[in-house]
Amino acid sequence: MNVDQTDKPHTPWLLRKQTDTERTTLRDSSKKRSRHRQIGRAMRRHSFRLFTLTLALLLMGRNSYTPTEMARQAIHKTVDGWEFDLLRWEIDSSRSKATLLVDDPTMSMSVDESSQLVRTYINRTGTIADLKNEQTKWAADGDAEEANKVQKEINALYALQQKERLFVESIIQQQIGSELAQEGITVLGKPFPPVLFSFTNPPKKMVVSPRDRVEVIHAEMIAAEIDLESIEQSERTVLEEQDLSMYITNIGGLGAFPTLVIETKNLEWILSTVAHEWTHNYLTLYPLGINYATSAELTIINETVAEIVGNEIGERAFARYYTDLADERSNEEETAVETETASEDEQESVSTDDEADKIEEKRFDFRMEMRETRLAVDDYLTKGQIQEAEYYMELRRMDFVENGYPLRVLNQAYFAFHGSYGTSAASSSMIGPALAELRDQQPDLATFLREVRWFTSEEDITSLDNAD
Q: Is 179 a member of any domain?
């Protein structure tokens, strides 16, 4: 059947031209989109290949490590599973501290009321410690029933501690903060960073030193729950396999934020330790703290400064808020000095036959004995006499144990750890005495702290001393 062309719809020429143009544009756009899709697909393929290659390299690991890196990995492996999660602890502790921002009842307490709450808490800490000792004795005797009774007492006291812990921490923070403010160590009238700490069972610290010298070459925090058997096994493994000296020890606090401080019945020590750890946080805002671990000398300077500030602030807070306890301690110290003096006077009148016995009975001076031990060890190691030094340290360790100082370990790593505190008897550095002398030359603690916070080397101590 023929169709009459005149029956077809008539399309004007202009519209036909526009339609052709649109078709051309659509075809061009389609081609561009197609090219874009092709480019996109190619980029995705390349990106996926790059991601796969990167992931494969990460999973494969490096083909080689330096001897130092390999030693560090081997050391860390000995305490695998006992790592301390500092970040998690800080998050949990900060969360608990935040609850007091809304309502802190200690802010409305009088000085006497707040101090009494702290006393009660600290006394309870001492009671818990005594009960633990009692429980250990019952357990050693095989009396499980009595040991369990004591455990119930301990649990009840812990429940009371838990209710009051945040409040006691807040009071001590206020007391230390007040002493810092009295010294003028503030920003806009308040200590900065804020004084924040938490009572906890701090992690232990692992320190590793070469055997031929006393130096910290590796350190890390270990979970407080690690048992003695694992500690001693790790120390033996590192000695036998890496030929290095290791020491894993308890610490009194840690300069995190909030800082960690252990619970003890020694209140003055707690106050000083809170101030000590706060000083570390303060110094991290300045060159001295930023460069804490860049050299052994700067580590010693940091620790010694924190020790000086912590002791002064702690003693002042103790004397101000716990006057009777401070007076009692002073009286005990005076009595001890008088007893020693009387003993020395008696020695002058005793016969020659009794003289040896009197000397033997003389009180064992830990600081003097430890200082002599450190100097002798340094002398042995300087001469390359490693085995002689280690034999000597073991003999001296037994001497300390016999005189009431139960040292578990006395080795190069022990001195590397304790020697980082310039005021410690285990230190052979002259940095501690130099900083103590520098503190005596300053008019107040705030001036001392403002000066030393800029130190970047041991020479800065001498430079400031000469400038004065």
A: no
Which two three-digit tokens encode residue 81? Answer: 């599973």
Percent of the chain with pLDDT over 90: 41
| Block residue for tokens 């060159």 | 287
- Report H helices in 183-322: 228-242, 267-283, 287-290, 296-321
User: What is the residue whose two structure tokens read 């500030």?
Assistant: 309
User: Are 122 and 267 within 8 A, CB to CB?
Assistant: yes
- Nearest in space to 221 (alpha carbons), one of 201, 242, 239, 207: 207
Distance CA(116)–CA(350), nearest Å, equals: 49
> Residue 52 and residue 46: Cα distance in Å, rounded?
10
Measuring CA to CA, which residue among 135, 169, 128 is closest to residue 150?
A: 135
How far apart, in Å, are the Cα atoms of 315 and each of 22, 310, 421?
90, 8, 19
Domain total in the chain:
1
Query: How confident is the model over 138-152, as a mean pLDDT?
Result: 81
User: Alpha-carbon distance 15 to 21, whole Å?
Assistant: 10
Segment 78-98 mean pLDDT:
81
Question: Strand order of the sheet with strand 218-222?
Answer: 218-222, 204-210, 244-249
Give the pLDDT confidence of 167-180 residue by residue, as tens digits. 999 999 999 999 99
Instruction: Tell me which residue of 217, 296, 263 sits closest to 123, measured CA to CA.
Output: 263
Cα–Cα distance between 78 and 71 in angstroms, integer?
A: 11
In a domain, 193, yes or no: no
Is the distance from CB of 301 to CB of 458 less than 8 angstroms? yes
Q: Which domain holds residue 412?
A: 198-333+362-467
CA distance 203 to 220: 10
- In tens, the pLDDT along 235-253 reads 999 999 999 999 998 887 7
Of 176, 218, 439, which Cα lies nearest the Cα of 313?
176
Summarize the confidence of residues 190-197 as an average pLDDT. Answer: 92
For residue 148, give both structure tokens.
């369990």
Task: Report the half-sphere exposure of 417 (CA within 13 A, side-chain side).
Answer: 21
Residue 376 lies in a domain: yes
Say how many Å lie between the first and final Cα of the chain, rounded. 121
Instruction: Quote the CA–CA distance of 254 and 388 in Å, as a whole number.
Output: 35
Residue 158 resides in a domain:
no
Q: What is the DSSP letter of 221?
A: E
pTM: 0.69
Q: Judging by beta carbons within 10 Å of its beta carbon (0-12, 13-18, 19+), is residue 104 exposed, middle or buried?
A: middle
- Which pLDDT belongs to residue 15? 46
- Helices 111-140 and 144-182: crossing angle, nearest 10°? 150
Residue 207 makes CB contacts below 8 A (sequence gap 6+) with 216, 218, 219, 246, 247, 248, 249, 413, 416, 417
Task: Measure the CA–CA gap between 35 and 83, rounded to whole angstroms.
Answer: 54
